[in-house]
Amino acid sequence: MRGTIVHPGAGELHYEIRGIVDFARELEKTGLTITWENIGDPVAKGEQVPQWIRDVVAEEAKKSSSSYGYSPTNGLASAREFIAADRSKQGTYLPPKDILFFNGLGDAINKVYTWLNPRARVLGPDPAYPTHSSVEAAHGHSGHLTYRLDPKRDWQPDVDDVRRQVAENPSIAGLLLVNPGNPTGTVYPKAVLEKFVDIAKEFKLFLIADEIYANLTYDKADFVSLGALADGVPTLIMRGLSKEVPWPGSRCGWVEFYNRTSDPEFDAYIRSLEEAKMTEVCSTTLPQAVLPAILGDRRYEQHLERRRQKYARRATQAIEILNAHPMLQVVQPKGAFYLAVILDRQILDQAMSKGAVNPEVRLLLNKTILGVPNHNFDKHFCYQLLAATGVCTVPLTTGFNSSTPGFRMTLLESDDKTFNDTLHAIYQFCG
To answer: Of all helices (H) and strands (E), which one includes residue 24?
Structure first.
């Protein structure tokens, strides 16, 4: 090329959750049946969207005009007013004008980091959801800055370490929390959230809370939205329809802006997000149009409660089976639908002795993991597990920017026997 066209942060973009799919598809061609535990799509794992929700969507789609045209750039007034009223019921003030719709939270996350000053960094969790960590790293042209979640303390953060890192690194302008956590299923206690708010006040930072799983906390009483605790601190809260309806194909997410006028820099930053969205005209109209009818229906809470109970039951079952192995460790999740399984380094030798289901798969495995560093032994493990059993999981180190080796699987499987068989296949693979 005549000039350099590659973004300086392009090398930081990784999404192992889908990256392992290419290898799994090659294995499928050899006749191996794949159990897809890599991606958090409830629909793909057999969850049925209730008929009444499908009827609401269908009735809206029958209308000749309302959902087929552009929506206002910020989002339909009816959807924003519904969300604002819901927050008001919870005792939180949020004007409808401070809600901005996106084409899913992936779109929102990209915009939020892209339009930050390149010298402004956001400190996020380790393990981290890869869309946050990779896009933030690409924005900063270097590795994502992290605070560690400690599995020995139920994946809770070391808040003193957060404060130390902020004090030592003046480029940190914001703090990210994913609550409930992905991949850990962690739910932050109110006291921990308040400490993040205190740090943000002390160092004049802004806060980002990805709360896409807020309504999938197993015990509703455990969850407190950061928006209710922000106490004057500039804050962005991310929510959406994809996981809880579930409707990932809707590509419908939104960001709530709290205390936007408390700092002129933050207000200008929010205006830049709105202007950036304006260049796209708007986000998808249909899911916005049906949002009040779905989320406001009395049956919706019953729908969520059934799903919460299922994931809590699946988590208990997984812990009983996997924690019985001396080289596996699972911390009880409290929300979302994931399980982070921590691996002992010694397990790799045991795993590598398992071989593959056939010689063709062995050749593909050897070719794929050639060059993977030894310190990413959990990636070796996950690819070996896939080649030997067909169970597709995601390594924590390369998939979630984690300093703790392990893998993530989901709690989404609809069939009880299939889920039980998957857990036993993992256990037996580990020896």
So the answer is: helix 16-28
